[in-house]
Amino acid sequence: MVVHPLLLNTLGMDLKIGICEDDSFTRSTLAASLAFADVQVVFSAADAASAMAEAQLDMPHAAVIDLHLGAGPNGVDLARSLRRLSPEIGIVFLTSFENPRLLEKSLNGLPSGSQYLTKKSIESVDQILSAVQESISKSRKTLAPSQGGIDILTDHQLDVLRLIAQGISNSEIAVCLHIETKAVQAVNSRIAKKLGLDANQSGNQRIQMAKAYLRATGIIHDN
After folding, report:
1. Distances (CA, A) of 180 to 160, 172, 195
2. Which of 115, 149, 185, 206 lies at a CB distance of 3.0 to 4.6 Å from 131, suitable for a disulfide?
3. Where are the domains of the chain?
4. Domain 149-216 carries which CATH code?
5. Architecture of domain 5-136
6. Rounded CA separation 195/210 (Å)
7. In what side-by-side order are the strands of the sheet with 115-118?
8. What pLDDT digit, counting tens, does each position of 140-193 carry?
9. pTM score, whole prediction
């Protein structure tokens, strides 16, 4: 077996990787790309429960995990469960979310040594393999989500922005969050300022705010 150059001298053995990704096309494409790079894909699961069941049968050296796995446990939940089974397992998050707080506000801390990659930043499987190598190295360091943008918003501001992206009006947001409509308007202004949006230059400010959120979650990719 010819080991991919990025993985030479990492383990001294065939590298085994598990995949957990709820999108079937992405999952199969990733599995095929890793297999083509001479990596042994020991499981390719669509949800956390299936991944855990497979891992108990054949524990991989590293797992490439989507953050959002549909209903049930998310990618961070799965990563922590895998670490309880095997503390040395490498964790690579591969997700459309620029920051895990966009999925859940409580997802601030990631397992130590884990690598956080966004799908839109990936141009080749080499980037994933490089992250895998770092995740299983003895001196592994956490690659955290990039700072700035959406990440600088408070939890309350993120709640408001999420509702704006859903097309909910200020008055409806006020009802949802049990605050005054004027308070929502004030939060909107602070969000726009933090995101560098200017209503006079960017058109409708709410539309620009919604686009900023949707870009950060990977739903849209325009600039």
Report:
1. 13, 10, 23
2. 115
3. 5-136, 149-216
4. 1.10.10.10
5. 3-Layer(aba) Sandwich (3.40)
6. 11
7. 40-45, 16-20, 62-65, 90-95, 115-118
8. 887 777 666 777 888 899 999 999 999 999 999 999 999 999 999 999 989 888
9. 0.83
